[in-house]
Write a structure and sequence with these properties.
This protein is an alpha/beta fold. The protein folds into two domains: 202 residues, Rossmann fold (3-Layer(aba) Sandwich); 34 residues, no CATH class. It is built from eight helices and seven strands; from the N terminus they run E-H-E-H-E-H-E-H-E-H-E-H-H-H-E. It has a seven-stranded parallel sheet with strand order 3-2-1-4-5-6-7, with helices on both faces. Helix 4 links the parallel strand 4 and strand 5. Helix 1 crosses helix 8 and helix 4 runs parallel beside helix 5. The radius of gyration is 17 Å and the shape is globular.
C-alpha cells in the first residue's frame, strides 16, 4: 500500500493550465492529493471532466474552467472566475502548451505565431492576471513549464524559442514579484510519456513505443519520464519546502546532457 501524501497544500488554492492531460493532469492530481483545491483549466471544461472526476473520487476538491490562454480577455475571465469560486489563488502552474514542429525553412508564420502565443505569451498573460491577487495577499508560488528543447531541438524552432523565453521570463518575474512574497520557478522536462510526445512519434512515422525506445537509449537512466515525476517537482517548487527557492529552472531529464 502506498504511503499517503503529506497535506502540504491544505487550505490552499491552485490554478493549473493545460490540465486535461499529460503533465498538467498529473500536476492537478498531485496538488489535490496534497490538500489543494484545484482549478483545472483547458480549452473546454468538458476536456477536464476525466481529471475532475478522478480528483473528486479520491476525495479532493476541484473545479473545471475553460480558457484559450493566448486570449487576454478569456484569461482575465478565467482568473476572475477562479477567484470568484475560491477567493484567492496561492499556486499557479503555467503548463498549457502545444507543438507545430517543422524544419525552419518549412515552418509557416502561422505555426511560429501559434506556438509562441500558446507556450510563451500565455505565461505572461496568465501570470499578469494572477499576480495582482498574489501581490494583494503578499504570497504565492508560480511554476512555469519550460522544456529540454529550450537548449535547441531540430524541427522545433518555434517551441524551443518559446521554452527558452519562459526561462528568461521566469527569472524576471522572480525579481519583480519577490518583494511581494511571490516565488517564481520553472521546470524543464526532457522526454516524458505524454499524449504530446505520442503525437510527435506518429507525425514522424514511428509508433510511440519505438519513439520512446530511441529516446531512452540516449538517456542515462535508460528510460523516458512519467508525468507524475514532473508533477512531483512542480509540487516541490509550489510548496513551502521551496520557501527560499526562486528564479530557478530545474531540468527533469533522466541525466541527459
Amino acid at each position: 500500500m502506498s504511503t499517503p501524501l503529506s497535506p502540504r497544500f491544505q487550505g490552499r488554492y491552485a490554478l493549473v493550465t493545460g490540465a486535461a492531460q499529460g503533465i498538467g493532469a498529473a500536476t492537478a492530481r498531485r496538488l489535490a492529493a496534497e490538500g489543494a483545491a484545484v482549478a483545472v483549466a483547458d480549452l473546454t471544461a468538458e476536456r477536464c471532466a476525466p481529471v475532475l472526476a478522478e480528483i473528486r473520487q479520491a476525495g479532493g476538491t476541484a473545479i473545471a474552467v475553460d480558457c484559450d490562454v493566448s486570449d487576454p480577455a478569456r484569461v482575465d475571465a478565467m482568473v476572475e472566475a477562479v477567484i470568484g469560486e475560491f477567493g484567492r489563488i496561492d499556486v499557479l502552474v503555467n503548463n498549457a502548451g502545444m507543438t507545430r514542429d517543422n524544419l525552419l525553412f518549412k515552418m509557416s508564420e502561422d505555426d511560429w505565431d501559434r506556438v509562441i502565443d500558446v507556450n510563451l505569451k500565455s505565461v505572461f498573460l496568465v501570470s499578469r492576471a494572477v499576480q495582482k491577487h498574489m501581490v494583494a495577499q503578499r504570497s504565492g508560488a508560480i511554476v512555469n513549464l519550460s522544456s529540454r528543447s529550450a537548449l535547441g531541438n531540430r524541427g522545433q524552432a518555434n517551441y524551443a524559442a518559446a521554452k527558452a523565453g519562459i526561462q528568461g521570463l521566469t527569472a524576471t518575474m522572480a525579481i519583480e514579484l519577490g518583494p511581494f512574497g511571490i516565488r517564481v520557478n520553472a521546470v524543464a522536462p526532457g522526454y516524458i510519456d505524454t499524449p504530446m510526445t505520442a503525437a510527435t512519434a506518429i507525425r514522424v512515422g514511428v509508433t510511440p513505443e519505438e519513439h520512446q525506445s530511441l529516446a531512452a537509449a540516449n538517456t542515462p537512466l535508460r528510460r523516458v519520464g512519467r508525468p507524475e515525476e514532473v508533477a512531483s517537482v512542480v509540487a516541490f517548487f509550489a510548496s513551502d519546502d521551496a520557501s527560499y527557492v526562486s528564479g530557478q529552472t530545474l531540468y527533469i531529464n533522466g541525466g541527459a546532457r
